[in-house]
Every structure is written in structure tokens, then in C-alpha cells.
Amino acid sequence: MASAAVCVLGCLVGALLPIVVGSSAAFTGSVTSSGLLGLVFTVRNLQLLRVTGEPSLPPAVLTTIFGGWFMLAPLLYTDVGFLATAGTQLAGTVVSTFGLYVTVAGLADGPA
Fold it and tell me: Which of 41, 54, 84, 96 could form an SS bridge with 67, CB 3.0 to 4.6 Å?
């Protein structure tokens, strides 16, 4: 359950960081909207994990994909800035790592 909670925090950081550091409008819009959508899946996964005690694969896989997008997005936009790039990629690394852990735990039928 801790891994799913870390994913929630990572998506929240990924969504808010471009706004806080003042990145370009295109990057902010893309990453913030993706972060909010990713947050929906991470919260749903955490909710299902609390109710059933087992991770749900669809939101866990989508969480991992959103983490990958956070890592790649700064490379696709110009003039993103150092803090936005580093912070978004760090959030993406955390989300992908812990999201993949929840996915593997769901495949192995073990607790996350």
C-alpha cells in the first residue's frame, strides 16, 4: 500500500511542479493535465488496494505509463528550464518505479 501512496504523491508533484516553477505554457499544460489524469488512476489504485487488499492491474499499469511520460516530456519541449526538467523527471522516475512494483505485485498476487 505504501508503494501506491508514493505513486499518488509522485503524480501530485509531477502535476504541480511546472506551475510552481513557471515553465512554458505548452509544457505546463501537457504535464499538469497528464499529472491530474495520472492522479485519478493512482488514487483509484490506492482505493481498490485498500478495499480488496490486492493491487488492480489496469490503474497500476497506467500509473507506470504516466511515470514514463513524466520522464520523457521535458525532452520533447524546448525551454522547459532546469527545475521543471529535473523535478518532472524525478517524479516520473518515482512514479514509474513504484507503479511497476505495484504492477508486478498484482501479477504475483502478493500484497503491494
Answer: 96
pLDDT value of position 111 = 56
Q: Which band of pLDDT confidence, cut at 50, 70 and 90, is reported for residue 106?
A: confident
Give pLDDT tens digits for 45-74: 999 989 988 888 999 999 999 999 999 999
Cα separation, 13 vs 59, in Å, equals 18
Considering its fold, how many domains does the chain have in total?
1
Place of cell 509544457: 27
With 0-12 / 13-18 / 19 or more C-beta atoms within 10 angstroms meaning exposed / middle / buried, residue 78 is exposed
Distance (Å, whole) CA 33 – CA 46: 20
Task: Give the global pTM.
Answer: 0.87
B/e letters for 30-40, b = 16+ CB within 10 Å, e = fewer, are: bbbebbeebbe
CA distance 48 to 51: 5
- Total Cβ atoms within 10 A of residue 100: 18
Per the structure, the complete domain to which residue 43 belongs is given by 1-109
